[in-house]
Amino acid sequence: MSSILIKNAMIVTQNSNREIKLGDIYIDDGLISEIAPSIHSEAEYVLDTKGQVVIPGLINTHNHISMTLMRSLADDVHLNEFLEKTFAVDSRRTRKDVFAGSMLGVLELIKSGTTSFVDMYYWEDETAKAVTEGGIRGFLGWAVLDEDKSTQKGAPIKNAENFIREFRKKERIYPLPAVQGVYAASEETFLGAREVAEKYNTIAHLHLSETRMEVYEHEKKTGKRPAEWLDKIGFFYDHVLAAHSTWLTINEVRILARNGVSVAHCPTSNMKLATGGYAPLPEMFREGVNVSLATDGCASNNNMDMLEEMKICSLMHKAHRWDATVLDAQTTLDLATINGARALHMEDKIGSIEEEKRADIAVLNGRSERMLPLSKATAVSNIVYSAHGGDVLSTIVNGKLLMKNRQVLTMNEKAVLDMADERSRELLK
Amino acid sequence: MSSILIKNAMIVTQNSNREIKLGDIYIDDGLISEIAPSIHSEAEYVLDTKGQVVIPGLINTHNHISMTLMRSLADDVHLNEFLEKTFAVDSRRTRKDVFAGSMLGVLELIKSGTTSFVDMYYWEDETAKAVTEGGIRGFLGWAVLDEDKSTQKGAPIKNAENFIREFRKKERIYPLPAVQGVYAASEETFLGAREVAEKYNTIAHLHLSETRMEVYEHEKKTGKRPAEWLDKIGFFYDHVLAAHSTWLTINEVRILARNGVSVAHCPTSNMKLATGGYAPLPEMFREGVNVSLATDGCASNNNMDMLEEMKICSLMHKAHRWDATVLDAQTTLDLATINGARALHMEDKIGSIEEEKRADIAVLNGRSERMLPLSKATAVSNIVYSAHGGDVLSTIVNGKLLMKNRQVLTMNEKAVLDMADERSRELLK
Description:
The structure is a homodimer.
Chain A: E1 4-12, E2 20-28, E3 31-36, E4 45-48, E5 52-56, E6 58-63, H1 79-90, H2 95-111, E7 114-121, H3 124-134, E8 137-144, H4 156-167, E9 173-179, H5 187-199, E10 204-208, H6 212-222, H7 226-232, E11 240-244, H8 250-259, E12 262-265, H9 267-272, H10 281-287, E13 291-293, H11 306-321, H12 329-336, H13 338-343, E14 361-365, H14 379-386, E15 392-397, E16 400-404, E17 407-408, H15 413-428
Parallel strand pairs in A: 1-4, 1-5, 6-7, 7-8, 8-9, 9-10, 10-11, 11-12, 12-13
Antiparallel strand pairs in A: 1-2, 2-3, 5-14, 14-15, 15-16, 16-17
Helix pairs in contact in A: 2-3, 2-15, 11-12, 11-14, 12-14
């Protein structure tokens, strides 16, 4: 494990006082060991970040990372056609495609300053290989659904448990069960997933109330809306991370709050698929629900740029509420950092730049034409409303430098692009 | 004037058939002289664009470019507070600040592939200097408003005319009158601006129906909504370019269509200021209004990235209409290219890549982690939904290479950033 000294930084700490500090950061053995105005210790790597902005690595809490290969495959169509198109390709996918798509995705995450992501897919062992190679943190959710609705070989819940058992001791891999949603999973499946999550002390991920159809169909079938039903059957508890959560009543928001369920909010995906819902974030905040931010997969976004996602998130809510004060820049940055850590029950380890936390850090170019004027007063706004993934110069995960001045050190970029190119030609022909 | 040969490109032509061609482009004496599968002529510069995507230079039809120095100055506040904050700084601004802000802005435009922009401000002669230095096309609107509401020295309409007279023969400078809006300009002022525009054959620019307050106050005063009133007094004609145009009735949309008025749509600015309106683009298309795209100034955006703006534009309308098919990728790219050219009455010269047109071109990196898979089928979606300004490698205006592989050739980037930094510290202290 190498030591890194970051010099002369503007540090957006995201600590409990949301302090912005000017100074140095010493990283040793994967940890942030010291933050001070000036540090003179020797280090293996020294990054002079004068004029740069150092932020906690971004946390993307809902993704289907291998779907990078389906980028721009099914745009501008109604949801049913979107599902048809993506399922048609999906049914032709091989393990190689999942690996190639995951490699492309991990590369994109590193290059845009994301250091942790939550995934939902099958063959997550292929995605785990890409995570291991790239060096980021992967919270890898093996898709769980009823066996009769699954295309997986074997029972999904068993596959998930096998995956978790095999991968849970590996570095930076956090395997977990991820339930497709109420339209594809019975009470038994949901409770089985919870049991596995509790047994191995993982997060339990799911798609929740993304579309009206999902809500109304479930209500017709069970007499309850999805969140009400999941509460009743006893699925919800404080390790549940619910993606989307757009079509919720205030009663359902309170159910999430009462159970300590976190939300993975996906504004771009919801807007692009025109699912009509706007997740009720102001009400979630008021009721005490922890909300994090996510890009969703590349078939519905079409990238995984969390800097762009923050801007779109804030804009969407401001426009929808006719209120420029909602989702202010600081709140929006919180969603993408410390709230993400909280959703993963890693708040003591990641999500902010503080001594004794793991060193998951993104360094942004503060001396660019998009980031001036730069001061403590404008830094957070510039990050949220002006920066994009290309402004990230360096990415550090667990104290290891994954990208330095836009050069990815852990992956052969050309090989990753070539493989993605080749597999996509095969897959989409 | 130098010759440039672009080799092995994927060319998103934006011609009338919206063809995507594979091949070479020969640029000579400022013009696109040949597009063919393979060109072997000698050229001063040869750009091998294998794996890259060549698009018409983007056209940003509403801006206050020198406000880059006010980036992130007044975020997350209600509109009245926004205006108070920006006006307070504005009243302290000097010519030097307008120049420094314009230089920073021109740099940002070049680096994000924008080759033409429409501006509205005073001291546009300072902005003209930045445009001349940077080498892009500036459609520079001198702000016109009633003399008793103006802080300009002298009568705004006279200042505008003097500016137009002095600058209209200069290369790539298109001076024009830009009326602040119905809240700041009388019938006489509006008609004076039209007279000047007609006299010098320029565009007449204005802010139209951005906020409800503007509409209701004007209706209270005159009995007519702004667009109805501007129609009645005879301001509208086919050289008018109306920014925002959000709070319009279908009757007003028809008024714009009947008069051949073009719209400069500013989705990010409208969302961020939460002015509540969603410009009725589907109705504008149906009625035959030409709609172009714009970022507005950096106080309300907070950047001028037209690639980002396209995505936000499409997302906003899809979400608002609960319809994923509106503002599809191709339509959205049209707003930012050929429709912009039409709004400027330059459709025969810019806005598409066709022989005999001026060579205004942006080259995007198609071999990046955000742009794969890349094919004729995905190119436009990738541009609109995944690319950002940082993906632009090279920018050409009027046959001149302004940026090559992210290196700006016409401006001293460090000096521009230093000047902006210094002036903003002075201005904002």
